[in-house]
């Protein structure tokens, strides 16, 4: 059985680290695929549960020299009566997927659990314990949440402390170095700063305390037969430090303070690299703001009714079928169905629609939306990870953690980069020592260190994932959910968009417009029979006929039999009459003549109405017509797609005349009509065979195969869960402008990635030769290397300023 798991990984310093973890995991027997995202510091693994356990994967990551982030939780236990209860709870917890260790203290009635957040949660642990008859309570949950530090924030604080300590010790060394230049001879310098042993005392803590993680990282990398940024830093700074130490000893033997010292080079390099890492960590923290904002939308508490009493509980304690009370101005805590009350709900944070939506009993509401003006009581239908907002957050996390195909190039380059750089540095040293400045170790060493230090694969490794994080996160805030980096990349290459008609181009809420009766039938009798039969169908057109019957005050009659003929209509028996309601093909199939009403049908269809023929007891009896008006934004949105060079196609099961009338109103030139649900995917495939890159946009269950077949499937978020599951992109709003917005987000994100890759490569292509020719001091090389990573991340963050096109693009 296949299973997916996400690990939060600590200890990575550059793209080579990510590549090493990927290779190590992918070599494991039972791992189908493993990918590591350096920017998010996560790993997504698909593995066979028969061959591997999460602990096996965790141990593999640790054996490679890294670690997996685990979370701890503490609970009070209710219901224990003896030590056997404690043992039972312990066994239950320790058997759970994702739990590293669980320990029960019977005397204190507490449970401490260390668990993997990618597999389980505190809620899952609560449910597991509850299933065996006990209850868990989180003590002071709010205070615990406030006091719990995010591991990324903790890393920033640690880097800040390292930087300040390193900077204080490096400044005197930098002061001594600057005073050596002729143009700075006026600067006063304390004599002590020139003493080799004073310089050693200042440089040693920087080299071996602040710089110790580089040595550890280099050792782990080399032990696993690979090389990363740590190898370059440890090699470059060690060369400077130990050569200076050698010179210090030689000067002591000679009895003089004069020596070629490079303590400032090693210390300043480490300080600059730590500063770069600090700035990078802060910038990467900003790049995950989209998820933080989405999480911030969630309500923290809910007022529920249990055992006839109202109580306020944390949102995590709400269960399915709980009755939840929502006052005006409050956030809806969970997804649910209104069972009492009428209100207007602001759904803008989910759908992007600015106008509140009227809701009454029977309507569904979404968690995190805002109840504007009425008191409502809802029954919880989805809680925890199942709510719409949680699913959106999960999609965004998956997209930000995924890799775009363009990243493969960067990964391949990073994998061979460090050995090549070390080779170039050694060759540079030899050329300088034997040919450029024969016998001069100092000048050869300077160029060696400069080449080693300026060449860092970090910028290359960060180029793609930071852009994907920023681009997909900003798109999500605008109601456009990309399910992965590969979809973000493919979208920019689309040249054809196929639109489903009902609910996509049109409002999807057709209403009855005409009832024409023939032979001896009256309009009311015809509509009463048709409306009664259509009550059995879920099709929007069927609901329009039924609603039209009720609006005319007609009572439904008994329906004795019903059968749907997908794409054609229905067959039914009502009040003793055999009914056929649907297309011409349906009547042809049953050999019923309808030529006498053909002209009326054509007239209605030319008006953009869907005309359904009605036959009763084997003879044509009349026509019922419904109309579905197009969305007000559709013509403008389709015009925008055409401006972007997109060929727009409308595909529908409606007859050709009706479809063409709707298409004309919307500004669509190409129509594929009278398509059965099972034929939609075939039409998409036919367009692809013509060499077109096709996006399918739909909202219904019958669109799912076509959404899966298209190069990119876009599901309108107002549609069904099946369509959204099959799609690559979910448009949370029903506005077709979101399609053009998705294309624009994709194009600008890919452009940003290419900019990052260009600059990351350009830094090295330009910097390494400059350093090799001796034009770059080692400390300047270190500054340039640190700046390259930071500049790549800052460029990616520009994507967070993007806005949907209809609001005016800003970069």
Automatic annotation (TrEMBL):
GO terms for biological process: copper ion homeostasis. Keywords: ATP-binding, Cell membrane, Copper, Copper transport, Ion transport, Magnesium, Membrane, Metal-binding, Nucleotide-binding, Phosphoprotein, Repeat, Translocase, Transmembrane, Transmembrane helix, Transport. It is a multi-pass membrane protein. The chain crosses the membrane at residues 163-188, 200-219, 231-249, 261-279, 413-435, 447-464, 756-773. CDD domains: HMA, P-type_ATPase_Cu-like. InterPro entries: ATPase_P-typ_cyto_dom_N, ATPase_P-typ_P_site, ATPase_P-typ_TM_dom_sf, ATPase_P-typ_transduc_dom_A_sf, ATPase_P-type_domA, HAD-like_sf, HAD_sf, Heavy-metal-associated_CS. Residues 3-69, 71-137 form the HMA domain. One of its GO terms (cellular component) is plasma membrane. It is found in: Cell membrane. It is an enzyme of class 7 (translocase). This is Copper-exporting P-type ATPase.
């Amino acid at each position: 059985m296949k299973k997916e798991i996400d690990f939060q990984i600590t200890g990575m310093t550059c793209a080579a680290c990510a590549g090493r973890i990927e290779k190590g995991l992918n070599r494991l027997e039972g791992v189908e695929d493993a990918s590591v995202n350096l920017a998010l510091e996560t790993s997504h693994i698909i593995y066979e549960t028969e061959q591997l356990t999460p602990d096996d994967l965790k141990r593999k990551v640790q054996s490679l020299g890294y670690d997996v982030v685990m979370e701890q939780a503490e609970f009070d236990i209710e219901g224990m009566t003896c030590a056997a209860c404690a043992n039972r709870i312990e066994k239950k917890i320790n058997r759970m997927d994702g739990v590293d260790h669980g320990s029960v203290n019977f005397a204190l009635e507490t449970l401490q659990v260390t668990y993997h957040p990618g597999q389980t949660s505190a809620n899952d642990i609560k449910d597991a314990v509850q299933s065996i008859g006990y209850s868990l309570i989180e003590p002071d949950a709010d205070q615990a949440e406030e006091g719990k530090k995010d591991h990324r924030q903790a890393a920033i604080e640690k880097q800040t402390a390292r930087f300040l300590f390193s900077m204080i010790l490096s400044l005197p060394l930098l002061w001594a170095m600057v005073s050596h230049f002729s143009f700075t001879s006026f600067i006063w310098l304390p004599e002590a700063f020139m003493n080799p042993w004073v310089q050693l005392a200042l440089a040693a803590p920087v080299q071996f305390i602040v710089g110790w993680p580089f040595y550890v990282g280099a050792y782990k990398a080399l032990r696993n037969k690979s090389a990363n940024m740590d190898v370059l830093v440890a090699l470059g700074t060690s060369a400077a430090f130990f050569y200076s130490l050698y010179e210090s000893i030689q000067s002591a033997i000679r009895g003089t303070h004069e020596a070629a010292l490079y303590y400032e080079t090693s210390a300043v390099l480490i300080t600059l690299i730590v500063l770069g890492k600090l700035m990078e960590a802060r910038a990467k923290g900003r790049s995950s703001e989209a998820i933080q904002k989405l999480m911030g939308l969630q309500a923290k508490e809910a007022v529920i009714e249990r055992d006839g009493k109202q109580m306020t509980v944390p949102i995590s304690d709400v269960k399915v079928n709980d009755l939840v009370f929502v006052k005006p101005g409050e956030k809806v805590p969970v997804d649910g169905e209104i069972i009492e009350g009428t209100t207007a709900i602001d759904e803008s944070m989910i759908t992007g629609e600015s106008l509140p939506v009227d809701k009454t009993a029977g309507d569904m509401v979404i968690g995190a939306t805002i109840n504007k003006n009425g008191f409502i009581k809802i029954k919880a239908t989805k809680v925890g990870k199942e709510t719409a907002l949680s699913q959106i957050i999960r999609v965004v996390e998956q997209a930000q953690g995924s890799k775009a195909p363009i990243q493969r190039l960067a990964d391949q380059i990073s994998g061979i980069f460090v050995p090549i750089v070390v080779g170039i540095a050694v060759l540079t040293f030899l050329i300088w020592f034997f040919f450029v400045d024969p016998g001069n170790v100092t000048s050869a060493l300077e160029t060696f260190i400069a080449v080693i230090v300026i060449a860092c694969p970090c910028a290359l490794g960060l180029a793609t994932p930071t852009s994907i994080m920023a681009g997909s996160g900003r798109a999500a805030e605008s109601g456009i959910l990309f399910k992965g980096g590969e979809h973000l990349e493919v979208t920019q290459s689309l040249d054809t968009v196929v639109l489903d008609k009902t609910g996509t181009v049109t409002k999807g809420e057709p209403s009855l417009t005409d009832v024409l009766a023939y032979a001896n039938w009256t309009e009311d009798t015809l509509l009463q029979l048709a409306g009664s039969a259509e009550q059995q169908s879920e099709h929007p057109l069927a609901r329009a006929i039924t609603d039209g019957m009720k609006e005319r005050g007609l009572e439904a009659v008994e329906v004795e039999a019903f059968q749907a003929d997908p794409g054609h209509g229905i067959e039914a028996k009502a009040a003793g009459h055999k009914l056929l309601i649907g297309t011409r093909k349906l009547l042809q199939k049953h050999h019923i003549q309808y030529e006498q009403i053909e002209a009326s049908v054509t007239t209605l269809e030319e008006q953009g109405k869907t005309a359904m023929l009605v036959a009763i007891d084997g003879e044509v009896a009349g026509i019922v017509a419904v109309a579905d008006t197009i969305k007000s934004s559709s013509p403008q949105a389709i015009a925008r797609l055409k401006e972007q060079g997109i060929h727009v196609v409308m595909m529908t099961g409606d007859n050709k005349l009706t479809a063409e009338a709707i298409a004309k109103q919307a500004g669509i030139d190409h129509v594929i009509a009278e398509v059965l649900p099972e034929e939609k995917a075939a039409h998409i495939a036919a367009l692809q065979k013509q060499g077109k890159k096709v996006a399918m946009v739909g909202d219904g269950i019958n669109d799912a195969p076509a959404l899966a077949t298209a190069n990119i499937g876009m599901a309108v978020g107002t549609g069904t869960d099946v369509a959204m599951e099959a799609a690559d992109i979910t448009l949370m709003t029903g506005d077709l402008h979101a399609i053009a917005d998705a294309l624009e987000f994709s194009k600008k994100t890919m452009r940003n990635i290419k900019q990052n890759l260009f600059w990351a490569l350009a830094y090295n292509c330009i910097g390494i030769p400059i350093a090799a020719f001796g034009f770059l001091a080692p400390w300047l090389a270190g500054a340039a290397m640190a700046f390259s990573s930071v500049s790549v991340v800052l460029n990616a963050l520009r994507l967070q300023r993007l806005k949907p096109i209809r609001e005016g693009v800003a970069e």
